[in-house]
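Students often ask why we bother predicting the structure of a whole assembly rather than each chain alone. The short answer is interfaces. A chain on its own may look different once its partners are present, and contacts between molecules only exist in the joint model. In this exercise we take two input lines together and write out one structure for the complete complex. Read the inputs first and try to guess which parts will touch.
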Amino acid sequence: MAEDYFKELKEAQYPLFVAPRPYSFDLNEDMIQLLRDEFNPDTVATKLADAISGKDKSEVEKIAKGIFEEYGQNWMRKTIQLGEEYSDRTIEMVLESIDRSGEQFMLFPHVLQRFAEIAYLSTQEFLKLPVTLNNQYELAFRVPQCLLFSKIKDKCGDEVANLMTCQNACLKALETLNRDLEIDTLNTMVASTNKDDYCEFSMKKL
Amino acid sequence: MCWLCDEYGAPEHGNGLWYLNPYNYARNMYKLRLPGEGYAGAEAGPETGARPERREGPTQADLTRAIEEGNGEEAARILPILQERSKRGGQPSQVVPLEDADRVLELCSPIGLIACICRKGARAIDERNEMEYTCMGMGVGMLKWERWPERYKGGVKFVNVDEAKEWNHLMDKRGFVHILMLFGAPYIGGFCQCDYPDCGAIRSAVDFGLGSMKSHWVAQADYDKCNGCGICASRCQFGALKFEVTSQKANIDQFKCYGCGLCQTGCPRGAITLFDRTKIPALAEVW
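Now the answer. The structure tokens for the assembled complex follow.
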């Protein structure tokens, strides 16, 4: 039998490329489903409806603010936890670049953007988050046809929905994102569903 | 204003110049896929992303084939059709001068240096590391460069805005034209560094009047300052600038000028200025 000239090469470890795991550029579907189950807008809208039932109009805003802030904080905390647990190749590219260069310039906006996208894609009905700005100064995105807003409308009526108390959930979620990732940004809501048919949030780096 | 400014510019950003509108650089990082849904358009790679929407009629490949076969009649029939189509909607790229390029780099993230596919195709030059890269990609698509077709792969070096500007100035010094590439208008995803004849965009523009759009600027020489050194003529990639033997000065054909500004940045005497194309009646519609 002829000598296998490539035996040594075949047995050697291939040093050039080791496929990272998981090697998907998309978000993990299990993670999306876990968040969807836990932070379903229908559940929080029902909770709000029960809480404000029989309450005076002046109390509604205060009660709703409390419910939505708690929801927003838990929603983003879980998003960060699962987002870090269920990695993907897209964010690995950002993190590897930070590791290699030691520079943090890709942390904002891309790490924040990923968590924002995970949070909204797992609780809304759209398939991609309309990101309107993502540069070194600002991250901004829209929430069209908000599912939470429509659920509040269904369960609590137009009047309660138009108070836009649900903005507390989104703003608290973004605040949690800042605090947990230690990135200072100025968060504002620049458009709201009751007036503009969509909400828009802006995170300006400080 | 060019048609891109009409459609995608915003008066509050860069006086309405579409490529200074920061919204044209923003895109989502992720998309939830429906069962069985694969990658399409810009997600599938630079070629499918940069390609304008499919249209009826002849393509540039048909034109090239007709020329190769020596079929002048067919080439003469195809070329006006392509040129007409190219005037609006068919050009996925625009030349920008260095000053605007610096402003563009402030508006996008991330910025990655990559290998140039045109030079690979035209010259068999395989750029393998950051010292060799001559192309720049921008936007979140760069985070997914690994899923591009194998022929594109040569790695990526992510840089911050200051590093990107420095690199761009170096490219300018070397004599490359800065061309913004669209990946599904109005999204801008690439910043090519081009020269003739290596670069597909410039080659189509110079040879056939197709492809890349002229910039919003046009060069003009100040004969009192020009000393006739000829540096500018050697930097023009569009055949718009020549050394006038009689006057011993630079002569610019403004109808051919793409406003890349390479002559301006290369002039040691500061004798060349860029003027707003739209303010010159004869050139206002020459894109």
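Check your guess against this: The beta strands of chain B are 93-95, 111-114, 135-138, 156-159, 177-182, 188-194, 217-221, 241-244, 249-252, 272-276.
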